[in-house]
Write a structure and sequence with these properties.
The complex is a heterodimer. Chain A contains 13 helices and 2 strands; from the N terminus they run αααββαααααααααα. Chain B is an alpha+beta fold. Classes of the chains: A mainly alpha, B alpha+beta.
Chain lengths: ~325, ~400
């Protein structure tokens, strides 16, 4: 606030040249001074224009995403083979193979949800317990090791997790139980889960550290243990941040691409058996990008329809997360 | 029973058995406390364990096939002779170009959002919308950016026909290439890729294999072949057919961009733009206001303050943030697979429009093959990628430690 006021004051001061000291200047130098001031003002305006244009580009990117996905999705529904009814109610997704083509989004959608749910089932307990540990229990020295380890996990490229799923998790699952396919939803889901643990833990930890110490001290004063403080007081107090963390992690899991493209397989199916192959929306997009598909066929436009569905899902999850954080945030001043 | 001062003792203290019974819940609480602590340790330990397993698997698989040759040769159909040279060069091209595009844009946006407080409520609201928008852009899956890049950069959809073929070109020459009976190459320049084929005629200007200008001599299909080697060198028969070739210089440029380096780099720039803006804003916010106020008090304008005071003070933070964004860009595969697809390349990119592949895509390509040999190559590729990321992160850490002096 103070900064705001000061700047405004200085700014007005600059504008009102009447306030400057009257000095015995020659007329020429006064003219020169005015010219310099005007030049400076022009430069400032120019700079603001340049900065504003750069900032405006971010809006342009969003507009371009909406426009491209919107226009091409409309094109998709204009094709003869496709109807809105089929897209939303058909249970088969079969756009590539010759003969009978089917464009029901449900198999891809359930595949995406299956893998996201497995991912969240791994990441939410792990991430939240890690967050509680880091924020409430961990000795600074343990923190100094664990935090960078989690950041390291967050910085590893997703294709590496895909490879890990294929080369380690899948063989492990097959060894535990013979029913697992070489490409299966569980393996990809676990890898996605590992991938989003750092998102859950870091956002949830930030939310829990923002809870003031007075609340914890209150619990101790009533004879509570650290567990009571962490789980019964700090956790509920930070719940808005924790829910936001889970929603963001879910958005990330839904949009995760390389892991599912490598480990989940490429058969879209409407099944909930995590031992079998499945395909997500992102997996389908990669499959399309790898094959030589013409630029105008119905398969090509189906890419945009799937991308639009994916975008709508992640966009609403992100918005919901931001809204929960703002709406339900407990304020302690 | 009374205590020393004569007051009656509290009944709990009087009966040890009752006291123990009352305290038991507390003991249970402490047991729960200890159990939960152990759970915390186990979970935190499993995070570290996963990291160890991940690195262990990759190291064990990848070290055997990692060699100097792996870094310097192109991929090949046989696993033993494969390397990732074109992918490494492709990553360098794409990431540098993406940073060149995203860093100025991102820093400029951050400066506007952090340093300017517009007085008009309307503009303030607009900036607020932009802030929200940046947060949302950061949450858009990168594969969606790939679709955007495919449409906007590769095909430039509304402007061109959507086939992705070059329509407007600079820095390219087309030739019809002839081989004569003396086995020399003769190149006849033509105007475009679709120009009608050249019919050899005497006196036509052509080039030899070293691009030295020569004048063609044309003889009939049944005429005797000249004895003189100098004449034979520039002689063609009138029935000879040429093949169309193109010669693209290093500054070759075309519209639409096609599935080339530039389209990939611009797409990647869009992916990392929100990250850079957020990092640069944090760095600018960490500069104490006293510095700005000092500058204003000395009569500096807003821009002078930004250029001479705020930006230099925030530079280490901005650099740290951009290096981290760069390591994100190096590992990003999903948007680039939409742009370039999986291509088999034996050369690194030579110009902005050239086909390319990057390290994560090469790794993906190897990992998805069924043969185990290629999985080992994928692991070796991952080691190279992780080492590069480690170097980047160390540089970022170094800058943070070395240059980020407390300013307030």
């Amino acid at each position: 606030m103070a900064r705001d006021l000061n700047i405004r004051f200085l700014h007005e001061h600059d504008m009102n040249s009447k306030n400057t000291l009257e000095m015995p200047l020659s007329p020429e130098s006064r003219v020169r001074g005015q010219a310099a001031r005007r030049a400076r003002r022009v430069v400032e305006a120019l700079i603001v224009t340049v900065l504003g244009t750069s900032t405006g580009i971010t809006l342009l990117v969003t507009a371009a995403i909406l426009l491209v996905l919107g226009v091409e999705t409309v094109q998709f529904f204009r094709q003869e083979e496709v109807t809105l009814r089929e897209f939303f109610f058909s249970l088969r997704w079969n756009p590539l193979l010759g003969g009978e083509k089917h464009f029901g989004i449900w198999p891809l959608l359930t595949g995406t949800l299956l893998i996201s749910v497995i991912g969240l089932a791994v990441a939410v307990p792990m991430g939240l317990v890690t967050a509680i540990y880091l924020s409430e229990y961990a000795h600074p020295r343990v923190r100094a090791v664990l935090k960078p380890a989690l950041e390291l996990l967050a910085g590893i490229p997703t294709v590496v997790y895909g490879f890990f799923a294929l080369a380690f998790i899948t063989p492990l699952l097959k060894w535990l139980h013979e029913g697992f396919n070489s490409y299966n939803a569980l393996s990809a889901g676990i890898a996605v889960g590992i991938l989003i643990v750092p998102i859950v833990s870091s956002i949830a930890e930030d939310a829990m550290r923002a809870v003031p110490n007075a609340l914890r001290e209150g619990v101790y004063g009533l004879g509570g243990t650290r567990f009571d403080a962490a789980v019964k007081v700090v956790f509920p107090a930070a719940l808005s941040g924790i829910v936001a963390a889970v929603l963001l992690a879910m958005a990330r899991a839904v949009g995760e691409t390389m892991v599912v493209a490598l480990a989940a397989g490429s058969t879209p199916r409407l099944a909930y058996d995590p031992r079998l192959e499945t395909q997500t929306m992102t997996g389908f997009m990669v499959q399309m990008a790898m094959g030589d598909v013409s630029n105008f066929g119905v398969e090509y436009y189906s890419l945009y329809a799937v991308a639009a569905t994916l975008f709508l899902m992640t966009f609403s999850l992100t918005l919901l997360g931001a809204w929960v954080r703002r709406r339900y945030q407990e304020k302690y001043e | 029973m009374n205590d020393r001062s004569g007051h009656p003792l509290h009944p709990l203290l009087a009966d040890p058995a009752l006291l123990r019974a009352r305290l038991r819940p507390a003991a249970g609480r402490h047991r729960r406390e200890r159990l939960f602590y152990l759970l915390c340790l186990a979970v935190a330990g499993s995070a570290v364990l996963i990291l160890v397993l991940l690195f262990g698997t990759i190291t064990i698989m990848g070290l055997s096939t990692l060699s100097w040759q792996f870094l310097t040769v192109p991929p090949s159909p046989s696993a033993a002779d494969s390397g990732m040279y074109p992918a490494i060069m492709g990553s360098i091209w794409v990431v540098i170009l993406a940073m060149l595009a995203a860093l100025p844009l991102g820093t400029a946006s951050a400066v506007l959002l952090e340093e300017y407080r517009p007085r008009s409520a309307w503009i303030r609201n607009a900036l607020h919308v932009i802030e929200l928008n940046i947060t949302n852009l950061a949450g858009v899956p990168s594969v969606v950016y790939g679709i955007l890049g495919l449409t906007v950069f590769v095909y430039m959809f509304p402007l061109f026909d959507g086939s992705g073929k070059p329509v407007v070109e600079w820095g390219v020459r087309y030739y019809d290439q002839f081989y004569n009976e003396a086995d020399t190459v003769l190149l006849v320049p033509v105007s475009s890729l679709d120009a009608p084929p050249v019919v050899p005629t005497t006196g036509l200007q052509a080039y030899d294999a070293n691009y030295r200008p020569v004048t063609l001599r044309v003889i009939g299909p049944d005429d005797p072949w000249p004895e003189d080697p100098e004449r034979a060198r520039v002689t063609l028969r009138s029935t000879d057919m040429g093949g169309r070739i193109s010669e693209k210089s290093w500054h070759y440029f075309c519209l639409p961009f096609g599935r080339g380096v530039l389209a990939g780099a611009l797409t990647l720039a869009l992916v990392i733009l929100p990250t850079i803006i957020i990092a640069a804003r944090e760095a600018l916010r960490a500069v104490p206001d006293s510095l700005r106020e000092g500058s204003f008090a000395l009569g500096a304008t807003r821009w002078q303050t930004i250029r001479r005071v705020t930006l230099p003070a925030a530079l280490p933070g901005i650099m740290t943030g951009s290096i981290l964004a760069m390591s994100r860009a190096i590992g990003e595969a999903a948007p680039l697979i939409m742009i370039s697809g999986i291509v088999f390349l034996s050369n690194p990119p030579r110009h902005l429009m050239d086909d390319f592949t990057v390290m994560p895509l090469q790794i993906f390509n190897w990992a998805q093959r069924p043969q185990a040999d290629f999985h080992l190559l994928a692991a070796s590729g991952i080691i190279v990628l992780l080492v590069i990321l480690l170097v980047f992160n160390s540089i970022a850490l170094f800058i943070r430690q070395r240059y980020q002096k407390p300013l307030s």
